[in-house]
Specification:
Layout lengths: L2 E6 L9 E5 L2 E8 L2 E6 L14 E2 L2 E3 L6 E3 L16 E2 L1 E4 L2 E5 L11
Antiparallel strand pairs: 1-10, 2-3, 3-4, 4-8, 5-6, 6-7, 9-10
Length: 111
Amino acid sequence: MAFERACALDEVSTDQGLAVTLGSLEVVVARDGDEVFALQNECSHAAVALSEGEVVDCQVECWLHGSMFDLRTGKPTNLPATEPVATFPVEVRGTDVYVDTETTLNGVTPA
């Protein structure tokens, strides 16, 4: 695993994800309570940034067509999206968030 610093924990709000570029990959870092998650920052349905959508009930919403993706699994929880997005390991170290983009938790290869 190769964790990279993504952002400060206080940069991640509880109602919207934060877009972060790590190498050539853009991820969305999101919070649900005290838990922090990282997903591919691109809707699998319409190729738009998930970081532009709201975070509600451990899901991030695609602002364009309303698909919701589970922060833990990357799986869509409603249509029109039918394919999951990649999810990545996250570590909170003190006040910083680290993400390992070389490993996916759900086996989905980032687009």
